[in-house]
């Protein structure tokens, strides 16, 4: 199936889904989310796939979050549909019975961070910046951020990120547990590749074990 | 309203000349800011005043002096159990309060003094802070530091210093003691400059996150987003993004 907003490739037992609108900082519009959903459905039923990598094209952005241009043109019914679409797609990532490694290759904001939270493991390039700045435009994180951030970071740190809308660098994200490992940008692609191979070779859904694999890959 | 055991003031921040930060200060430093029933009732009264005050968008809860944030229930209270029940009622009020509350803690924090800090949304600690004997706050502690860390702290009963509190996530950040007030003012200023309804709704969703499934949590988020979508503040926020300027939120 040909995709426009994403690219989907399979190499042996590794599936890779790439957001592919670098010119729009990989902002998530309805088309991209629907394509992501199709790719996930395909992966779910593909017994060959032992690990899934979610990343994005380009070096600047993983994803700047929801496509504000598109979202701000919607009426209330349209907004409801968009929110439910993102929530459903992210839950499908959550529910995937295979480890999902999210490779945050650049800035990840709002819905971009929420996408990463639905995965099992997060590795960030040292140039990445992360944040949930929704309250700075009059919104809240609506694709699971208010639920998954507290579960991952604890309530206090989640509250600070969400209520201030502050943007943090990769090192700080690692300190508070938002990412599991930070890698230099030159080595990023090769290290992510190594991680995916390591995960695929010893499939496990135990997060503590997977973190060890990612840290030593 | 005149308070005896606390002080209640309003502050501006570097982001706005508006005095949009409410500051509640425990004010019995001569007895390590221990909680009396009067003090608990006055904290509740100050929160009611903040609730009615549309200009106040965030609360800082701190204490007078650097030696103690709060050393728990005052043993001089005639009925300590009654005071403990009242304390839990006030903690719940802090936790469920519409506007975010930041605890600024220095020096001794012990017994239900830890409870005060844990009921707040986030905590900033001075380097000299020491936390000890968190009692009857297991649920809140686990939601903040995770169950393994909470179990360790509760069962060992040992005191931890600010650095360790930071490493387990019990406090968001540790700063030099003389920088505590300015750091907290900075964080509070950031929150006060965000869209007030969005902040309130996100607090409600975060508070529910340990009680509900992701599916139910998603429904709460959807409901909150639809409320945001009806605000002038969202239109202003999106306009400001496209015009590359700072938004001016009105809380409408």
How is this fold's topology laid out?
The complex is a heterodimer of chains A (about 220) and B (about 250).
Chain A: E1 6-11, E2 14-19, H1 30-44, E3 51-56, E4 61-63, H2 68-71, H3 76-95, E5 100-104, E6 107-109, H4 111-118, E7 121-125, E8 129-131, H5 145-153, H6 155-164, E9 167-169, H7 170-176, E10 181-183, H8 188-201, H9 207-216
Parallel strand pairs in A: 2-3, 3-5, 4-6, 5-7, 6-8, 7-10
Antiparallel strand pairs in A: 1-2, 8-9
Chain B: E1 6-13, E2 16-26, H1 37-52, E3 58-63, E4 68-70, H2 80-96, E5 101-105, E6 108-110, H3 112-119, E7 122-126, E8 130-132, H4 138-145, H5 147-156, E9 160-161, H6 162-167, E10 173-175, H7 180-192, H8 196-208, H9 214-229, H10 232-242
Parallel strand pairs in B: 2-3, 3-5, 4-6, 5-7, 6-8, 7-10
Antiparallel strand pairs in B: 1-2, 8-9
Q: Quick gist of this model?
A:
Chain A has 217 residues and is an alpha/beta fold. Chain A is built from nine helices and ten strands.
Can you offer a commentary on this structure?
The complex is a heterodimer of chains A (217) and B (252). Chain A is of the alpha/beta class and 217 residues long. Chain A contains 9 helices and 10 strands. With 252 residues, chain B is of the alpha/beta class. In chain B, strands 1-2-3-5-7-10 form a 6-stranded mixed β-sheet, sandwiched between helices. In chain B, strands 4-6-8-9 form a 4-stranded mixed β-sheet. In chain B, helix 1 links the parallel strand 2 (16-26) and strand 3. The model of chain B has no long low-confidence stretch (mean pLDDT 95). Chains A and B meet through helix 3, helix 5 and helix 6 of A and helix 4, helix 7, helix 8, helix 9 and helix 10 of B.
Report strand % of chain A: 15-25%
Radius of gyration of chain B: 18 Å
Q: How many strands appear in the DSSP assignment of chain B?
A: 10
Give the total of domains of chain B.
2
**CATH architectural category of the largest domain in chain B:** Alpha-Beta Complex
Mean pLDDT of chain A: 95
The amount of helix of chain B comes to 40-55%
CATH architecture of chain A: Alpha-Beta Complex
For the terminal residues of chain A, how far apart are their CA atoms?
Answer: 32 Å
Helical run tally of chain B: 10
CATH first level of chain A = Alpha Beta
The end-to-end span of chain B amounts to 28 Å
In which order are the strands of the major sheet of chain A placed? Answer: 1-2-3-5-7-10
Q: How many β-strand stretches of chain A? A: 10
Largest sheet of chain B: 6 strands, mixed
Q: Largest sheet of chain B, order of strands side by side?
A: 1-2-3-5-7-10
Radius of gyration of chain A: 16 Å
């Amino acid at each position: 199936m040909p995709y426009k907003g994403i690219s989907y490739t399979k190499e042996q037992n590794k599936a890779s889904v790439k957001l592919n609108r670098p010119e729009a900082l990989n902002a998530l519009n309805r088309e991209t989310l629907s394509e992501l959903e199709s790719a996930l459905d395909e992966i779910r039923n593909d017994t060959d796939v032992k690990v899934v990598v979610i990343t994005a094209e380009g070096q600047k952005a993983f994803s700047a979050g929801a496509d504000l241009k598109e979202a701000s043109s919607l009426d209330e019914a349209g907004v409801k549909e968009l929110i439910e679409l993102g929530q459903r797609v992210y839950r499908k990532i959550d529910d995937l019975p295979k480890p999902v490694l999210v490779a945050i290759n650049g800035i990840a904001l709002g819905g971009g961070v929420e996408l990463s939270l639905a995965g099992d493991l997060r590795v960030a390039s040292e140039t990445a910046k992360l944040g949930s700045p929704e309250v700075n435009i009059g919104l809240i994180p609506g694709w699971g951020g208010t639920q998954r951030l507290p579960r991952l970071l604890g309530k206090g740190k989640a509250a600070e990120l969400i209520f201030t809308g502050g943007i943090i660098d990769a090192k700080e994200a690692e300190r508070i547990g938002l990412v599991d490992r930070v890698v230099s940008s030159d080595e990023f692609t090769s290290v992510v590749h190594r991680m995916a191979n390591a995960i695929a070779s010893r499939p496990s859904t135990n997060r503590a074990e997977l973190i060890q694999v990612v840290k030593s890959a | 309203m005149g308070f005896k055991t606390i002080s209640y003031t309003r502050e501006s921040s570097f982001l706005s000349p508006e005095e949009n930060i409410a500051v509640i200060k425990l004010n019995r430093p001569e007895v390590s800011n221990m909680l009396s029933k009067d003090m608990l009732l006055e904290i509740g009264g100050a929160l009611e005043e903040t609730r009615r005050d549309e200009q106040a968008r965030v609360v800082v809860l701190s204490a007078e002096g650097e030696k103690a944030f709060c050393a728990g229930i005052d043993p001089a209270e005639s009925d300590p159990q009654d005071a403990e029940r009242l304390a839990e009622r006030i903690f719940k009020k802090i936790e469920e309060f519409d506007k975010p509350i930041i605890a600024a803690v220095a020096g001794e924090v012990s017994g239900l003094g830890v409870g005060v800090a844990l009921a707040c949304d986030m905590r900033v600690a001075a380097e000299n802070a020491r936390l000890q004997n968190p009692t009857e706050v297991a649920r809140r502690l686990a939601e903040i530091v995770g169950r393994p860390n909470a179990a360790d702290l509760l069962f060992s009963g040992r005191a931890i210093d600010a650095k360790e509190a930071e490493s387990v996530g019990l406090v968001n950040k540790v700063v030099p003691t003389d920088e505590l007030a300015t750091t907290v003012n900075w964080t509070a200023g950031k929150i006060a400059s965000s869209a007030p309804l969005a902040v309130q709704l996100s607090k409600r969703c975060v508070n529910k996150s340990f009680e509900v499934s992701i599916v139910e949590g998603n429904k709460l988020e959807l409901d909150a987003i639809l409320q945001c979508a009806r605000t002038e503040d969202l239109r202003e926020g999106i306009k400001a993004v496209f015009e590359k300027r700072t938004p001016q939120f009105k809380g409408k």
